[in-house]
Amino acid sequence: MKLRDSLAENKSIRLQAEAETWQDAVKIGVDLLVAADVVEPRYYQAILDAG
Fold first, then answer.
1. What are phi and psi of 21, to 5 degrees?
2. Could you tell me which of 32, 30, 33, 25 has the C-alpha nearest to residue 44?
3. pLDDT score at 19
4. Using the 8-state DSSP alphabet, how is residue 2 labeled?
5. Domain residues of the chain, as ranges?
6. CA angle, corner 22, sides to 13 and 17, nearest 5?
7. What confidence score (pLDDT) does residue 24 get?
8. From the CA atom positions of the chain, what is the Rg in Å?
9. How distant, in Å, are the alpha carbons of 3, 21, 22 from that of 32?
10. Which among 40, 39, 36, 38 has a CA at the least distance from the CA of 10?
11. How many Cβ atoms sit within 10 Å of the Cβ of residue 29?
């Protein structure tokens, strides 16, 4: 199985997602990580603060 397929299968990535801003794109990715219990919701704000 290819890495992309593996990540899509375990919902670590969302293929064909659309975002209007980089902040929206980060939010989509962080929401997936939060759902997988990989990070806490505050991670999103930490990324924005660092950007």
1. -135, 165
2. 30
3. 97
4. -
5. 3-50
6. 35
7. 97
8. 12
9. 17, 17, 16
10. 36
11. 19
Residue by residue, what is the 3-state secondary structure of 8-47? HHCCCCCCCCCCCCHHHHHHHHHHHHHHCCCCCCHHHHHH
Cβ atoms 12, 36 nearer than 8 A: yes
Structure tokens at 18: 């659309």
- Which two tokens mark 24? 């929206």
Tens-digit pLDDT profile for residues 1-51? 787 777 777 777 787 899 999 999 999 999 998 988 889 999 999 999 997
Per-residue pLDDT at 20: 98
Rounded CA-CA distance 34/36 in Å is: 5
